[in-house]
Design goal:
This protein has one domain: Molybdenum Cofactor Biosythetic Enzyme, Chain A (3-Layer(aba) Sandwich), CATH 3.40.980.10. It is 45% helix and 20% strand.
Length: 167
């Protein structure tokens, strides 16, 4: 069956849980999380939850585990903490939880980002995969990166990924 055939049978509305990982943002100042939620809703999907967490890997992993294992969403969309600074630990927190990795997400994210910002794109450790049938996407925390990840990669395939994860 072609990708287009799969998409025809994919869910049209997906429940998404948005997580911002940041030591400096609050719900009031979280432009990236707000943008992510807006884009999800504009695409016809649902927001089942939203949190801002400090860049503490144990807290990030606990929340992702809770959302996935408790079936609180069909997709977890994280932004922030994917760089290479000492405090950036979203990659480690998420990667350890995944049953299956979607390596193409990070590869394509960096490729598209390279087209916009040049060589600095290789500093991101955007990643994605599945945990117990729940799609998990981790992208950088800038609004530009969230827009790129959501509009170019996640939203065009979200229903397809979730549908395939439940087959």
């Amino acid at each position: 069956m072609s990708a287009e055939e799969h998409k025809k049978h994919a869910p049209k509305a997906v429940r998404c849980f948005v997580v911002t990982v940041s030591d400096s943002r609050s719900e009031e100042t979280d432009d990236s999380g707000r943008l992510c939620r807006t884009l999800v809703q504009q695409a016809g999907h649902e927001i089942s939850g939203y949190r801002v967490l400090k860049d503490e890997p144990a807290e990030v992993a606990a929340l992702v585990r809770e959302v996935c294992d408790g079936h609180k969403a069909c997709a977890v969309l994280l932004n922030g903490g994917t760089g290479v600074s000492r405090r950036d630990s979203t990659y480690e927190a998420v990667d350890a939880l995944l049953d299956k990795r979607l390596d193409g997400f990070g590869e394509l994210f960096r490729y598209l980002s390279y087209q916009e910002i040049g060589a600095a794109a290789f500093l991101t450790r955007a990643t994605a995969g599945l945990r117990g049938g729940v799609a998990v996407f981790a992208m950088p925390g800038s609004p530009e990166a969230v827009r790129l990840g959501m509009e170019k990669l996640i939203l065009p395939e979200l229903g397809h990924v979730v549908g395939e994860a439940h087959r």
